[in-house]
Design brief:
Blueprint lengths: L3 H12 L5 E4 L6 H11 L5 H9 L4 E4 L12 H13 L6 H6 E6 L5 E5 L10 E4 L16 E5 L2 H5 L3
Antiparallel strand pairs: 1-2, 3-4, 4-5, 5-6
Helix pairs in contact: 2-4
Length: 161
């Protein structure tokens, strides 16, 4: 089992080494709320993401100056809307890949990261990043040019040691 607390602590320490932000890592989501989320999505969450959410319902830094900034790993109550938003970036040209993309990480710059389904509806190993700068709004563009393998797992993305 993944030591999520260690990974989260390391991520927050490395992301805010000066201690300028409040650290957002709330208690985990309940089994009931995850079941509702999966029902709304129409699919079971990837096991690693489900495990993460059972430990912490989101992750990120909150500026103390009162400005709002999206959270790095979106909490479950934001996930459906966030997925729809991210998928809409390329659903017009690559609807099949947009439907298979399950983003949960917000890079704050138009990029997102998350899990991918294969053509058989099974989650592929690893985390993929949608790179908005690599996307050309061209249906003939290979999806691999803007949906890029980024890390072996969510744990590796958060703690790349």
């Amino acid at each position: 089992m993944t030591n999520w607390q260690h990974i989260i602590d390391h991520f927050l320490r490395m992301s805010d080494s000066e201690g300028e932000c409040d650290h957002y890592s709330p208690a985990g989501a309940s089994e009931e709320s995850l079941a509702r989320l999966e029902s709304e999505l129409g699919i079971s969450l990837p096991s690693e993401l489900r495990e993460f959410y059972l430990h912490s319902d989101g992750l990120g830094l909150v500026p103390r100056d009162g400005s709002s900034m999206p959270l790095f790993v979106r909490p479950t109550h934001e996930l459906v809307e966030y997925m729809q938003f991210c998928r809409s970036s390329f659903s017009g040209t690559h609807p099949v890949y947009a439907h298979r993309y399950f983003p949960c990480v917000d890079w704050y710059n138009g990029d997102s990261s998350g899990f991918m389904l294969d053509s058989d509806g099974r989650f592929v190993e690893g985390i993929y990043t949608f790179s908005h700068e690599s996307y050309s709004y061209d249906a003939d563009q290979d999806a691999g040019e803007f949906l890029i393998a980024h890390a072996d797992s969510l744990a590796a993305l958060l703690n790349p040691e």
